[in-house]
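Tokens in:
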């Protein structure tokens, strides 16, 4: 696979030999002269011990776009999104840096927007425009959530994007056909052929046996539909809700919005989980009393080569006790429940 060595160096110890470039998800149909692929490399997002891991990469993603178009005259330059010059984009993108020896008109810029970083590298080889975008997340090295932006990450993303772009430009066949002004028509499926989308399987929390619900101290007869397909039960002075989602674990619990400021690894029986309190007001606000949550990495599928899916067990009490007391109760009542939630990776 083109650029496999550069991808492996960029991923470092996150690299998996089985990882393959996959067609990127997009709401827009692929045009005949365009190819977009994504590869992601990640570590298990739930720490195995009782402390957060040392500083280092947690997630690395590379998106590669190849677009073929008629060769433009030298004085015409197609402006792509990361290199655009309007005021809004200048605010979030660094000054472009030229890259020598990589195709034609090669440059790279760093994006720092909404608390996250990306690096964009572009070049042209003949009539093919190459674009490489890198992003990621790092363990913070302490008891705080992983980080989406840091000087170390910026350097890592930038050097990775440049290396992948250089390898692609070197390996891209020189004999690629020159595109005409009329792109080839998109092939149509033979008559009678149907295309189906396989839905991501979602686990039903309401299927937990009543015996486990009772063992947790909940009233099995007071089962209610919860948020987004979750299931809710009442206890003596508190409510428990269990939810399942197809989102990647790190996007839920390690988001850069600051909802979970103090993640704590824990084992419920022998099941690794992340115990979190929540600042419903976002970054910089105090965590809310009367609430605690357990997060389990439970892959229901994959996206761009990494497992996705999580199960959450949430506890609210009626007197707004401090989170430490609520979390202690949650750890106790979750013990009979964890045997009935989907497995971790």
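Residues out:
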């Amino acid at each position: 696979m083109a650029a496999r060595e550069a991808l492996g160096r960029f991923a470092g110890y996150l690299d998996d030999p089985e990882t393959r470039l996959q067609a990127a998800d997009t709401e827009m149909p692929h045009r005949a002269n365009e190819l977009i692929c994504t590869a992601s490399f990640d570590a298990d997002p739930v720490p195995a011990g009782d402390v957060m891991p040392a500083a280092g990469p947690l997630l690395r993603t590379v998106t590669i776009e190849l677009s073929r178009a008629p060769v433009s005259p030298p004085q015409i330059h197609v402006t792509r999104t990361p290199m655009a010059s309007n005021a809004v984009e200048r605010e979030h993108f660094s000054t472009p840096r030229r890259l020598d020896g990589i195709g034609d008109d090669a440059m790279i810029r760093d994006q720092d927007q909404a608390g996250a970083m990306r690096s964009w590298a572009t070049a042209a080889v003949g009539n093919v425009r190459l674009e490489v975008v890198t992003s990621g997340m790092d363990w913070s090295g302490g008891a705080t959530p992983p980080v989406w932006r840091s000087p170390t990450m910026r350097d890592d993303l930038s050097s990775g994007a440049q290396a992948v772009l250089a390898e692609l430009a070197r390996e891209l066949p020189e004999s690629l056909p020159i595109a005409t002004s009329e792109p080839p028509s998109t092939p149509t499926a033979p008559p009678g052929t149907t295309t189906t989308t396989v839905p991501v399987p979602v686990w039903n929390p309401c299927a937990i046996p009543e015996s486990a619900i009772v063992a947790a101290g909940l009233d099995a007869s007071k089962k209610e539909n919860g948020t987004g397909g979750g299931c809710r039960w009442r206890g003596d002075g508190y409510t428990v809700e269990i939810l399942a989602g197809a989102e990647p674990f790190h996007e839920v619990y390690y988001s850069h919005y600051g909802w979970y400021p103090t993640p704590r690894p824990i084992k419920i029986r022998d099941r690794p989980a992340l115990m979190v309190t929540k600042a419903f007001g976002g970054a910089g606000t105090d965590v809310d009393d009367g609430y605690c949550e357990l997060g389990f990495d439970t892959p229901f599928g994959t996206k761009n080569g990494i497992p996705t899916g999580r199960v959450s067990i949430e506890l609210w009490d009626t007197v707004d006790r401090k989170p430490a007391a609520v979390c202690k109760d949650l750890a106790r009542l979750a013990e009979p429940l964890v045997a009935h939630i989907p497995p971790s990776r």
